[in-house]
Design goal:
Layout (H helix, E strand, L loop, with lengths): L7 H6 L6 E5 L13 H17 L4 E2 L22 H17 L4 E6 L5 H14 L7 E6 L7 H4 L13 H10 L28 H4 L13 H24 L8
Parallel strand pairs: 1-2, 1-3, 3-4
Helix pairs in contact: 2-6, 2-8, 3-4, 6-8
């Protein structure tokens, strides 16, 4: 179900055990070859596909396209919410639907810079409702839900999500090829090892002059179609786990 298409009596009549999904993404630079709306385009398509498969079993809020993208601000066109403002925005979305009586809420993320705010938001909201045992508050990024594209397809080389990389470029080639500019002419930017396993503070210019990370030259629309199928499959599976949750247990 799409929240945007319902009336308030429609929402009031829903079971409060219905999972509510908040898709979030970003508007930021994606190298010289992909549009700044890439993350939101891809997250929006995965949410659209998941909603069509789940039907009345889940409620999808409209995509929140503004994200935490300060690390891309050296590149023109990027829009970014201040980090604390963004964290409060995510917490507010969850609090809105807790106030409406819903108990199973998930931030479904399509931008790497939103991962830390998403985890922090569900943590903070849970602490504000410490007396509740019936709340399920989750935050997840779609490419971290279990898919291993390089194992599922021999023609995919990339092992993890990059930025404007083989994966993202392939998905845009499948979804809107007219928006991709000369990805075959790009230069690969290696992922490197930024003092792992430590978490390093960084800006994109620390890593990449053109603004991408990975090898966009390897992208194809066919790979993009397969990636959408994998990521949608895993997204639907996670939401189905929320549907099946017994309302009290730690595991699900």
């Amino acid at each position: 179900m799409l929240l945007a298409e319902l009336t308030w009596p429609d929402v009031a009549a829903l079971s409060k055990d219905t999972p509510v999904i908040f898709p979030v993404a970003a508007l930021e630079q994606h190298g010289r070859h992909l549009p700044v709306f890439t993350d939101s385009m891809l997250m929006g398509e995965i949410a659209r596909r998941a909603e069509s498969q789940l039907g009345s079993r889940a409620l999808f809020a409209p995509l929140q396209w503004l994200g935490n993208s300060h690390h891309h601000m050296d590149f023109p066109g990027t829009l970014s919410a201040e980090p604390r403002v963004y964290l409060d925005l995510l917490g507010g979305l969850l609090e809105n639907f807790i106030a409406h009586g819903f108990k199973r809420l998930i931030i479904l993320n399509g931008h790497g810079g939103n991962e830390v705010p998403g985890r922090q938001a569900v943590f903070e909201v849970r602490q504000r409702h410490r007396e509740r045992r019936d709340l399920l508050l989750l935050s997840v990024t779609y490419w971290n839900l279990g898919a291993q594209p390089a194992r599922e397809r021999s023609d995919i080389a990339q092992q993890v999500m990059g930025h404007a990389c083989e994966w993202e470029t392939s998905m845009v080639l499948h979804l809107a090829p007219q928006l991709v500019k000369n990805h075959r002419g790009t230069t690969p930017v290696p992922f490197g090892n930024p003092f792992e396993p430590a978490a390093r503070g960084w800006t994109m210019t620390d890593r990449s002059e053109p603004g991408h990370v990975g090898d966009p030259r390897a992208a194809s629309a066919e790979k993009g179609a397969a990636l959408f199928e994998m990521f949608t499959r895993d997204t639907v599976s996670m939401i189905e786990r929320m549907v099946a949750w017994n309302g009290a247990s730690w595991e699900g």
